[in-house]
Amino acid sequence: MTPLHPTVEEVTRRIEARSKDSRAAYLEMIRSRRPKAYARTRLHEGNIAHASAGCAVIEKAQILGAGWPVIGIITAYNDMLSAHAPFETYPQIIRDAAREVNAVAQVAGGVPAMCDGVTQGQEGMELSLFSRDIIAMASAIGLSHDAFDAALHLGVCDKIVPGLVIAALRFGWLPSIFVPAGPMPSGLPNPEKVRIRQLFAEGKVGRDALLKAEAESYHAQGTCTFYGTANSNQMIMEVMGLHLPGAAFTNPGTPLRAALTRAAAQRAAAITAQGGDYRPAGELVDARALVNAIVGLMATGGSTNHALHIPAMAAAAGLEVTLEDFADLSHVTPLMARIYPNGGADVNHFHAAGGMGFLVRELINAGLLHVDASAVMGTLAEYSREPFLQDGALAWRPAPEVSGDRDVLRPANDSFSSDGGLRLVDGPLGRGVCKVSAIKPENRIVEAPALVFDTQEALREAFEARQLDRDFVAVVRFQGPAANGMPELHGLSPVLGVLQDRGYRVALVTDGRMSGASGKIPAAIHVAPEAARGGPLARVRDGDIIRLDGEAGRLDLKVDPAEFAARAPAEFRPNRPAAGLGREMFDLFRHAASTADCGASPFRFLGSGA
Prior knowledge:
This protein has 610 residues and is an alpha/beta fold. Helices cover 37% and strands 13% of the residues. The protein has two domains: 6-185 and 220-398, no CATH class; 422-576 and 583-597, 3-Layer(bba) Sandwich (Glucose Oxidase, domain 1), CATH 3.50.30.80. The protein has 23 helices and 14 strands. The strands form three sheets. The chain has an eight-stranded mixed sheet. Helix 3 (45-52) runs antiparallel to helix 4 (57-65), helix 5 packs across helix 12 (255-270) and helix 9 runs antiparallel to helix 10. The protein is globular, with a radius of gyration of 24 Å.
C-alpha cells in the first residue's frame, strides 16, 4: 500500500494537536451518552406512549415492548426544490426496509431547505448562510426526543447538508447515515447556459431567451448538475464515509437509487449500540475524515463554500480546521476532475466516467486519503467500489480501472493540474480564499486600480452605464456575515465575465461569498476581518492599486501603510433596512457570527459545548 503523503500526515497531526483538549471533551460527552439499552428505555412510560402513539400497530408494539431499534429520520423534503422533491417517498421506503430487519423508522423532524438558485441576487439570499445553523438547530429539536438508536439524514443542497452534519455530530453517540437523492438528468450544456447569461448581461438577447436556457438547464427532479456546493456536499459525504459507497450521484427515480435508500435504512439498524458493529457519528468523523473531505474537495475542484462549512462542521466535533490546512492540502492534491465550472461536463458525465469509486481508489493509491478512516460501511477502502443491481439485489463491484472519459476524470498520476486550485490569500487587506482551478493561468494575477462598491447592485448599475470598460479590481464590501448574512454574489459572474472577454484585466475582492459555481474571474472571497467590523476593506478607496496574485496567494495594496492606517473606515450603511422576508429575525445571527475563516457560524462548539 502507498504510504500516506507527508503533507496529509502533517496536516492531520496538527489538527489533532491544536484540537486536543476540545476533542477530548467532545468524546467524553458523546461516550457518556452511549446507551446501555435501547434509547427509549431511558424515557418514562408516558414519554414512550407519546413516542409510539402515531405508529402502525407492528411498530407501536415494538416501541412499547422495546424489542427493535428505532431509527430517526431528519428530512429536508419540500417539493419546491428539485433536489429535495424525491424525498417525499423516502420515509415509506425506509419504514418498509427497516421493518424487514426488525427495526422501526420514524420521521423525527423536518428542516427548512431553501434554494440558492431561487434566491440568488434576491433579498432572501441574506438568510441563506445562516439557514445552515437553523437547520442544525431544527435537526437537534427532532433528535432531542432522545428516543432513537440511529439517524438517517435526508438532504442534498448547499447549507442543508452542513447543517445536518453539525446536528449529527452534536448527537454524536448516534450512528448517522446521510441519504442523498442524486442529480437530475443532464440538460442544456453548462457552457451554453453561461454563453446565454453573458449575452443577456450585454443586452444582446432578451429575457425570453434567458428563461428558455435556464429552464432547459434546471428541468427535472434531482440536484442541479453543475459541480457547485450541492454536489460538492455529496462528494464530501462519501469521502467522509457518511454515505453508502457510490450513493452520491445515482439519479433519482431509478431502481438503483431506491435500492441504495433501502440499504441505508438497513445499515443504520445494523450499526446501533445494541449490535456488534457500533459506529457513532462523532467517533467516525475525526481529523482523518476531515482531511479526506478537504482532499476530495481539492481533487474535484469543489465549491469554495466549503472553506466555510468544513471548519463549522469540524467545530461541532471539537476539531479546529484552518485555511492553512486547506492551502497545504490543495498544494499536494492533483486536480483530477473537470466538471463545470472547471470544465464543460456535469456530474452525470463524471459519474459515468468512473465517478466516486474511481476517484477514491486513485487518491488512496496516491497516498492522499486516510484509507483506514472509519465509515458507516467498513473503512474508506470500501469506497473504491460502485453499486449495481444483480438480479434485482444491491451489490458492489470494483470501480473501473480506466476513466471512461479522460476529458472529465483522470488518474492521479496524469491529472489536469498538479494542485487542487484553492489558494489561501493573505495581505494587508485581510485573509480569504481564491479558487484558481477554473481560471486560465494568464488571468490569475491582476494588478489594477480599485473601484469600490458597497452593494452588488451598485456594480451592476455601473456596468449597465458603461462605466466599467477598463482594467480594475472590484472591491465589493459590506457583504460579510455580520453585515448582511454573507449572500452569494454569483450574479456578478456574468458581468465580470463579459468585461474579461472584452480584454480588460478584472478581478473581485470581497468579504462576501461567490457561488459554488465560482468561475473564470480571479476573486479573493471570504476576506476577513470583514468591512462591517472595521476590516481593511472599509478603508479602500477608488483608485488604490490592488494586486491579487492567485498563484502566490497574495492580496496586496500599493498604498503607503501609514496613510492607509490613518484613513477613517467607511461606515456600514445598508442600502435597505434588514427587514422583510424575515431578515429582521436573523439579527441575532449577524451579531453572533464568527469570522469567515472560522466558518461564519454563531456557534462556538468546543468539546462538550463550552
